[in-house]
Write a structure and sequence with these properties.
Number of helices: 6
Distance between the termini: 20 Å
Radius of gyration: 16 Å
Helix content: 40-55%
Number of strands: 3
Mean pLDDT: 93
Largest sheet: 3 strands, mixed
Length: 146
């Protein structure tokens, strides 16, 4: 399971991190001179789980090479956001670990969110991604699970 500290450590190896007020966003990644710069507005972040998800998402942009110009067409921005979010899901909620958590008793989205220390909404996105986009069952052989 990836911790918030591990996300910070990985970001420190590949980007500069700034605490900066960002109107209409909690974080943003900027490429300048072939270097990544991650801006996070800590004043807008409510929980440690939210901070972990946001920073992992920005790291996902860097790791997948999906940064884009502010004036990029909507379809490009959408594809880049999807790739960064899928990277985040795979990193914070790996398929095998989610299945293992379900087998060991996590039966609700909030239990999975608490177990992985991520927001509930990311658990819902992960379930949708694994089951719908990938066609992978989460509860094979279990009754009454998610």
């Amino acid at each position: 399971m990836t911790s918030l500290n591990e996300i910070y450590e990985e970001l420190a190896r590949c980007a500069r991190l700034y605490n900066w007020h960002i109107p209409d966003a909690k974080a943003a990644t900027v490429q300048m001179d072939h270097k990544s710069h991650v801006f996070i507005d800590e004043g807008q972040i409510q929980t440690r789980a939210e901070e972990k998800r946001i920073l992992a998402h920005e790291l996902g942009h860097i790791q997948t090479g999906t940064t884009h110009a502010v004036v990029s067409p909507c379809d490009i921005v959408s594809r880049h956001e999807t790739r960064a979010e899928r990277w985040t899901i795979k990193r914070l909620l790996p398929y095998d670990d989610v299945c293992r958590a379900i087998r060991y008793g996590c039966r609700t989205t909030w239990e999975l969110a608490e177990y992985f220390d991520v927001p509930d909404e990311l658990v819902l996105k992960a379930i949708d991604y694994y089951t719908c986009a990938c066609g992978m069952p989460l509860c094979e052989g279990l009754d009454g699970c998610i």
